Amino acid sequence: MKIMFVLAGFVIMIAFCVISTSDIAQAEVVLGTGTDSLLGGDLTDPEDDGAPDADEGYNAIFTANEEPGFGGGEFSFNVFDNRLGPGNDKWCCGRGGGIPEEGLYVTAELEEAYALTHFTLSSANDVPARDPTVWEVQGSNDGEDFETIYAHDGDGFWSERLQVVLFEAGADFDVQTTAYRFFRHVTFDTASNPAGAYFQIGEIEYFGDANVTPVEPKSKLTTTWGRIKNAQ
User: Fold this and answer.
1) Does residue 79 contact residue 201 with C-beta atoms inside 8 Å?
2) How far apart are CA 207 and CA 117, in angstroms?
3) Any residues with CB less than 8 A from the CB of 204 and at least 6 apart, and which?
4) Which CATH number fits domain 29-225: 3.40.50.150, 3.40.50.300, 2.60.120.260, 1.50.10.140?
5) Could you report the per-residue pLDDT of 179-188, keeping only the tens digit for each?
């Protein structure tokens, strides 16, 4: 009888592991590394014809609370330049004093409201300790009151440099029933914060559905916390 109970226990453990692995497999997906792994055709540049140094050819207006601009440095708008690499192809590295209470954020303002269906976030070329560990993707319709769509609070999740990770509605965050004109990425912490050059991101791509009614600016969304997976 004891042997039967032991065997039953092993069966339950194996079943639990299989179920857990299956659940995790529905989480974030690694698309690869480098510029070629970006999806392209995102909401900020659906034609993939943006000229970053001139800030022309984009379907969005970009703003940031630190280092706003393209080209000439590792500025914040470089996360929308459709390129992964060092230097002008990333946003780095944070001013002295550490990340402010409101976080480090970069915003894309669109002409039309979209319900976010998926997005990609890419690591930069070096120093994993600069990767965001506490961050959010948020939406707004007035550019002032933002609601959390996706939130991550934990360790860095990239396993390689210049790695592109896909986050999807229904797997990593709630399927959206509201549409927004503003999307912003906010970093609240990194492993390096507040010492030295403590922050960097390679690229952000947003994708969405316009066939959803925009939400009033003060309406609230329920945050879904994603789970992490390095899928190869």
Assistant:
1) yes
2) 6
3) 79, 80, 106, 119, 120, 121, 122, 185
4) 2.60.120.260
5) 999 999 999 9
pTM of the model: 0.81
Distance between CA 151 and CA 206 in Å, rounded? 15
Question: Which residues face 30 on adjacent strands?
Answer: 165
Nearest CA among 35, 156, 163, 33 for reference residue 89: 35
- Strand 180-190 to 29-33 pairing: unpaired
Based on the number of CB atoms within 10 Å of its own CB, is 134 exposed (0-12), middle (13-18) or buried (19 or more)? middle
Amino acid at 179: A
Q: What is the DSSP string of 70-99?
A: SSSSS-GGGGGSS--SSGGGSEEE--TT--
